[in-house]
TrEMBL record:
This is Glycosyltransferase 61 catalytic domain-containing protein. Keywords: Glycoprotein, Glycosyltransferase, Transferase. It comes from Sphagnum jensenii. InterPro entries: Glyco_transf_61_cat, Glycosyltransferase_61. The keyword Transferase applies. Residues 173-389 form the Glycosyltransferase 61 catalytic domain. It comes from the Eukaryota.
Length: 476
């Protein structure tokens, strides 16, 4: 069982024999009491119903007891296969910056192919490229015959659908003929929709998933003649995204489109790279590219560029400013940080203020504890060598932050959240375990990701002690 605190605040573990005895007594009482409360008749059919009800109750109670006995409020060691952080998808190719910060190899950073635009190597993110595509009110048409991908090139599948109007409208992507009299845009166009960007809920993480690859293709690789198109209203774009575009002189160069009505001509592109579907969040191929990106942003915001130092002089708990997944026990976590690190602890709310305000919050300190969320995209601009401990909701985990910061030089440490006290639904979902809940039961995953986060202070202390040990031996 997970450690709990006794009266004097010391860590102890419940006695397993006592727990098993209590559960046995509880089960026996339930099995005897509940059937007695069921009023069945004396017929043979009623007797069968009685036995069935008793067996069903025994099974349900056994499931609950099994979950209670063999799972912990943090990481269920006997029920879950997710005991070790999954490998980052960005660290498998020879062109990527490895997690130990010592095995970066120069190589191909991107590839603009006949059928896709890829960043990094074969395992990283690719975006489909199409020759002839038209957007109308009820469908997205892929026109004519598409070029074959070359030998050794990765073919990226086209999205089955695209989303518009703040994700309120889903339009299928189909192969169909296009009218040459429609409005056609020539040249290479980088085209994004509003998938993962619901109305009224700006999400810098998913905006970056579209904007940064498009920016790299337009400015870093292909040149300034590439045009950027976004099927969104400018008012739907977050403060973060507008500030990011402004940092690269693109704020007035992005062409925003409204999906045509039924009576309007379709909007068509002769050659387009589509930024719509989910990615592995590996859109930064290497350290050099991230350094260029960071330098441009810091210079735009007039923020000095420095590296992190050790030992740290301050720790920061950066909570979400609104919505789910806020740190419910952040003050207890702050007390623990101050005690172990022997430094003052500052509390901030992420995602507030201008783009430069948000960047400054992550670029002026060296040690952070943050909940999982889209606001963490700003760590792309953090000090190299900074330490970030990301706290996840109970039964929820992904590797997004580790993936998109793999070339930043920062250290990212995952911390699994505790079972929220008094949340019986999450207690029920505990029977699935972390792996099944996240990867196989969507309603469990979606419920878990919207709950308050309780950081595991016992595990947090272990992580910090490990960091201190490594830093004291010069390992970082």
């Amino acid at each position: 069982m997970h450690p709990v605190c006794d009266e004097v605040g010391k860590m102890r573990r419940p006695r397993r024999r006592t727990v098993m005895r209590d559960v046995r007594v509880w089960l026996t009482g339930c099995l005897m009491y509940v059937p007695q409360r069921l009023h069945f008749g004396g017929s043979g059919g009623s007797s069968a119903q009685f036995q069935f009800a008793r067996a069903l109750l025994a099974f349900l109670l056994f499931c609950l007891a099994f979950e209670w006995l063999f799972s912990t409020p943090s990481l269920p060691r006997s029920l879950s296969r997710s005991l070790v952080s999954p490998q980052s998808a960005c660290g498998k190719g020879e062109n990527n910056y490895q997690q130990d910060h010592h095995h970066y190899h120069h190589g191909r950073r991107y590839s603009l192919q006949n059928s896709s635009f890829c960043i990094g190597d074969w395992t990283s993110d690719c975006f489909p490229r199409v020759q002839g595509i038209c957007f109308s009110s009820d469908k997205v048409r892929i026109c004519g015959k598409q070029p074959n991908h070359g030998v050794g090139q990765k073919q990226q599948e086209l999205p089955r659908f695209m989303r518009f109007n703040g994700e309120q409208l889903t339009v299928p992507v189909v192969k169909a003929s296009c009218d040459k009299g429609w409005h056609w845009i020539s040249g290479l166009s980088l085209v994004a929709d509003q998938r993962f960007l619901p109305e009224g809920k700006p999400n810098p993480h998913h905006e970056a998933e579209k904007l940064i690859p498009a920016l790299l293709l337009a400015q870093r690789y292909k040149g300034p003649n590439v045009s950027l198109h976004w099927f969104a209203a400018k008012s739907d774009v977050s403060v973060w995204a507008q500030g990011f575009l402004d940092a690269f002189n693109l704020l007035d160069k992005v062409r925003y489109h409204v999906l045509p009505s039924r009576t309007d001509d379709s909007i068509c592109f002769e050659d387009a790279v589509l930024f719509s579907g989910p990615t592995q969040v590996c859109y930064i191929p290497d350290m050099e590219t991230n350094a260029w990106l960071r330098a441009r942003v810091l210079n735009h915001c007039s923020i000095p560029s420095v590296n992190a130092s050790w030992p740290v002089t301050q720790a920061v708990i950066m909570d979400r400013n609104k919505g789910p997944r806020q740190l419910a026990n952040k003050h207890e976590i702050g007390d623990l940080l101050g005690k172990i690190l022997q430094v003052p602890v500052k509390h901030l709310l992420a995602g507030t203020g201008s783009f430069c305000d948000q960047v400054q919050e992550v670029s002026q300190d060296d040690f952070f504890v943050v909940p999982h969320g889209s606001q963490n995209v700003n760590f792309l601009f953090a000090r190299p060598g900074a330490i970030v401990i990301e706290v996840f909701p109970y039964l929820f985990y992904n590797d997004a932050l580790h993936n998109f910061t793999h070339a930043t030089g920062i250290e990212v440490h995952p911390l699994m959240g505790l079972l929220p006290p008094g949340n019986m639904m999450m207690r029920f979902y505990s029977m699935f375990g972390w792996d099944i809940c996240y990867n196989h039961v969507r309603w469990c995953k979606n419920y878990a990701r919207h709950q308050a986060i309780y950081g595991d202070r016992f595990k947090l202390e272990q992580i910090i002690q490990s960091i201190q040990s490594q830093r004291s031996h010069g390992l970082n």
